[in-house]
Amino acid sequence: MTLVRSLPPASPDLPAPPADATLPAGFTVELAPGTHRSRDGRLMTGGSPLRLMRLTDAAVRRLGDGRFSVTDAPSAALARRLLDAGMAHPRLARAAASAPVEDTTVVIPVRDRAGQLDRLLRALRSDPATAALPVLVVDDGSDAPAALADVAHRHGARLLVHPSNRGPAAARNTGLRHARTAYVAFCDSDVVPEPGWLAPLLAQFADPAVALVAPRVVALPVPAPGLLDRYEEVRSPLDMGETEGPVVPVSALSYVPSAAIVVRRAAVGAGFDAALRVGEDVDLCMRLHEAGWRLRYVPSARVGHRHRTDLRAWLAQRVGYGTGAAALALRHPGQVPPLYAAPWSLAACALLLRGRPGPAAAAAVLTGVTAVRVARRMPDADRPARAGALLSLAALRGTAEQLLRCATRHHWPVAIAAAGVNRRARQVLLAAALVDGLLDHRRSGSSLPLPAHVVLRRLDDLAYGWGVWQGAVRHRTTAPLRPRLALRLVRRWTGVRPQP
């Protein structure tokens, strides 16, 4: 047993950038399912946020049917740009994704929870791929340390002890400092990795610019699932969904939770910021991204998690998550906005909310003008007018859905205050609450009855939004509540330079 008494907290400074981001020969990429190509292959749209990329004839030939391997500098540059744009994904050899797991240390931060720790260690030791890996258990000020020590000893794990509780970020950093391997896998004590989960994650580090990789965190099955169990199966904040991709701020995949992640030890520096008790994983993702490192999400690798399903604890967890938004917004300005949209789409939505023919016609004109502008910037599309119209309508729909979320999540206190004095505001808020719940029930594939799902969705948002406001008051800032305007959205769609 090692007793850790006083160690400095992790630095919030940016990690050092990757020394070389060049993809190695043989690295294979394949176009993502959502990437669309023109008939001649020179024009592509996709990624998140949505963007457009033009290719030279040489790049079109190299891309072929949508899958190619790096053979020289131009192919490496093309593969890098496609990966960073989210238009392509790595396609590693089957042998690499199932290769023996080595040079990795598993770090488990824990406070009490001896039973959950035992379950996790049994899962690690019963998986042939991870059975022999070094495991560091960091006891973060447990009330019953002897129980944790016994579990760690029985499974051959090394125990590090914090005499007092310092938070999960500090506990992970203690493990990081004691690890001597090239890679470190962080697992919270309440997860249970599925067999074979680690090899596909480690395979991603064939890209020398990848610093962090995360699996999908899914709900552990329970014998008789209740309403909250069934809701968490499709709406857990730890489950990033079934779509793989790069982790990029202000995108569909803006962070990954630290419940289970693997990092390149040389890339993360001092690790997490120990000053943060909530949102330390989001902060690490953003600092790594800003430093130039790449982060990836691999949902084919899975770990189970026992979600909170006691109503009081569930609501408290959601409030706690919300309180972290203020600190993140202050540390990373503009990277965690409640809404990110173009001014024209916001204006169009505001006109449509008037519910009158005149404003609705003005909104249609505004959307049409934007469609024409987009079409003029992409004359080489198969059908420029159609492409411009579809992209503009998609942006309008996205803004409308974000406004629904803002009214029922981040800004619900303001929305309720407005509804208290204005009949139209009451109607709009009620419609927003119902429509958002209906859309979420359909998209998530929830097994809950529709009324139950809508109610839980509203409680989820109310609790999180309340936490956001608590954090904003505590930090005396409006940063987590301020929207971000995409002033150059059309240029982003069409301003990417041709690839070699």
Written description of the protein model:
By secondary structure, the protein is α/β, with parallel strands linked by helices. Helix content is about 45%, strand content about 15%. α13 packs across α15. The termini are far apart.
Ordered list of secondary-structure elements with their pairings:
Layout: E1 2-3, E2 28-31, E3 36-37, E4 43-46, E5 51-54, H1 57-63, E6 67-69, H2 73-85, E7 88-90, H3 94-97, E8 104-110, H4 114-126, E9 135-140, H5 145-154, E10 158-162, H6 168-178, E11 183-187, E12 191-193, H7 198-203, E13 210-219, H8 227-235, E14 245-246, E15 260-264, H9 280-290, E16 294-305, H10 311-331, E17 340-341, H11 343-353, H12 357-377, H13 384-408, H14 412-421, H15 423-444, H16 450-475, E18 484-485, H17 489-494
Parallel strand pairs: 1-10, 8-9, 8-11, 9-10, 13-16, 17-18
Antiparallel strand pairs: 2-6, 2-7, 3-4, 4-5, 11-15, 12-16, 13-15, 14-16
